[in-house]
């Protein structure tokens, strides 16, 4: 803390934490060194950023905020698309979990304890070094485990192992009254239920106990490049992909993603088995004749994960800091995109002013083990989702309105083609344009139960962002 505390709240923080653990707006380079907005298109200046090192220091920080009527949000890696880890608007207290790096492996149960501030790249390495273990998670190494694993945590291995949050067995959580609780199926089970999909609305998670799996021994990574210039000419390839991934008998070893961007279309993914097994799927032959393909076989699991991390699209989407906008939709086997809408969508991508050359549309296959879990078993409720679409537009200096309109138009074409269907959205890709309708889109039928738990453990809505769960009326 560079300046003498000037408010009662700052004085409270000064008594709760070491001096070097507090950053205030009066500090030099506060925005650059402490705030570090992920999305620079959204204004959000916290009243303070604290970096506690213990659960007790988190508790004291939260109690200072409660005493002075200030909202609180935790930040793990800081990759919130709408800066919700900064409060989503001015005036919040940010609890930065950067110092929570604990890692332990119980080699009898193969359960790992992971600090909430650990980044995904470090999670992979530490699991690997502790007996060749692994768990499901996403593909961006700089994403923080604390936020990722409590909002969903979807990745290439999720079709086999479930979402990252499905691995959580226990968590340590600081609640709005400052209480530090250990939550599992026996102790405070309602808190664990809410943490597994909506933690930012309920407390600050400091550490997790998770189940792990043995690393796969061999994986095949494949890429199909579709370089035909006109997006409209790529529509049939996408139709073939959607038909293939909608097959209920599709192997759970198969992960796949379609990425459309300014220069073309790419279909890539991972098969958790040998190249021979992958070839036997006949995926390449079934896909379309207009795709060129390549595949590589990796017997080094950490190398395979590193390959995910190094993908150019991941580096663009996952590592970008600047002005951007993103939207998402969730599709089930009953809400596949009709062929006519696919044609309209790909023509739209040819003709519409995007306002930027840096844009991407990503279709991500999910299902498998994720869908084995009942919709009401965790706060994450999109258990019937077959695939998501994520759309992104990045600005240079500023993001023009035409870029936002372009992404909105994509969603409009799709939703118009599926009348009387309510397509959900992934809470990991928060969309401020949804307003409080976002809560229904993110949590669906689980929202009423979340609101009831919120009323019980955070009735004054201490843990708040523009689209967080509100207490039941």
Automatic annotation (TrEMBL):
SUPFAM superfamilies referenced in this protein's UniProt entry, alphabetically: FAD-binding/transporter-associated domain-like
Xref: Pfam families: BBE, FAD_binding_4
Keyword Chloroplast: no
GO molecular function, one term: oxidoreductase activity
Domain of life: Eukaryota
Residue span(s) of domain FAD-binding PCMH-type: 42-215
Keyword entries, A-Z: FAD, Flavoprotein, Oxidoreductase
Gene3D superfamilies: 3.30.465.10, 3.40.462.20
Family: Belongs to the oxygen-dependent FAD-linked oxidoreductase family.
Name the record gives this protein: FAD-binding PCMH-type domain-containing protein
Species, as recorded: Pterulicium gracile
Highest classification ranks of the organism: Eukaryota, Fungi, Dikarya, Basidiomycota, Agaricomycotina
């Amino acid at each position: 803390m560079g300046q003498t505390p000037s408010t009662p709240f700052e004085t409270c923080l000064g008594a709760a934490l070491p001096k070097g653990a507090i950053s205030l707006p009066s500090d030099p380079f506060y925005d650059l060194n402490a705030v570090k907005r992920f999305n620079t298109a959204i204004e959000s200046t916290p009243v303070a950023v604290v970096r506690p090192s213990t659960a007790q220091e988190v508790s004291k920080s939260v109690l200072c905020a409660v005493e002075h009527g200030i909202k609180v949000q935790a930040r793990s890696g800081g990759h919130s698309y709408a800066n919700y880890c900064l409060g989503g608007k001015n005036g919040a207290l940010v609890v930065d979990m950067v110092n929570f790096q604990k890692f332990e492996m119980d080699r009898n149960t193969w359960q790992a304890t992971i600090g909430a501030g650990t980044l995904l790249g470090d999670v992979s390495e530490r699991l690997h070094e502790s007996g060749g273990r692994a768990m499901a998670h996403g593909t961006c190494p700089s994403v923080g485990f604390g936020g990722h694993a409590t909002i969903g945590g979807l990745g290439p291995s999720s079709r086999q192992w479930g979402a990252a949050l499905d691995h959580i067995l226990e968590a340590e959580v600081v609640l709005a009254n400052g209480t530090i609780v250990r939550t599992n199926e026996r102790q405070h089970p309602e808190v664990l239920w809410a943490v597994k999909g909506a933690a930012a609305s309920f407390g600050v998670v400091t550490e997790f106990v998770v189940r792990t799996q043995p690393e796969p021994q061999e994986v095949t990574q494949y890429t199909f490049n579709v370089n035909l210039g006109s997006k409209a000419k790529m529509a049939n390839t996408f139709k073939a992909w959607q038909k293939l991934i909608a097959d209920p008998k599709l192997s759970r070893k198969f992960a796949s993603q379609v990425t459309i961007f300014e220069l073309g279309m790419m279909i890539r993914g991972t098969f958790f088995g040998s190249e021979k097994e992958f070839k036997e799927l006949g995926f390449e032959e079934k896909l379309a004749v207009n795709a060129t393909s390549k595949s590589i076989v990796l017997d080094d699991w950490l190398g395979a994960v590193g390959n995910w991390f190094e993908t150019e699209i991941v580096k663009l989407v996952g590592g970008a800091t600047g002005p951007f906008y993103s939207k998402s939709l969730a599709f089930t086997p009953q809400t596949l995109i009709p062929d006519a809408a696919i044609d309209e969508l790909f023509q739209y991508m040819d003709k519409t002013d995007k306002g930027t050359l840096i844009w991407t549309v990503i279709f991500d296959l999910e299902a498998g083990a994720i869908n084995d879990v009942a919709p009401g078993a965790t706060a994450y409720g999109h258990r019937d989702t077959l695939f998501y679409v994520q759309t992104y537009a990045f600005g240079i200096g500023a993001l023009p309105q035409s870029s936002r309109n372009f992404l909105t138009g994509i969603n409009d074409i799709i939703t118009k083609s599926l009348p009387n269907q309510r397509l959900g959205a992934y809470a990991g890709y928060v969309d401020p344009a949804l307003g409080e309708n976002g809560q229904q889109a993110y949590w669906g039928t689980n929202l009423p139960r979340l609101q009831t738990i919120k009323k019980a453990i955070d009735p004054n809505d201490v843990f708040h962002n523009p689209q967080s769960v509100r207490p039941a009326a």
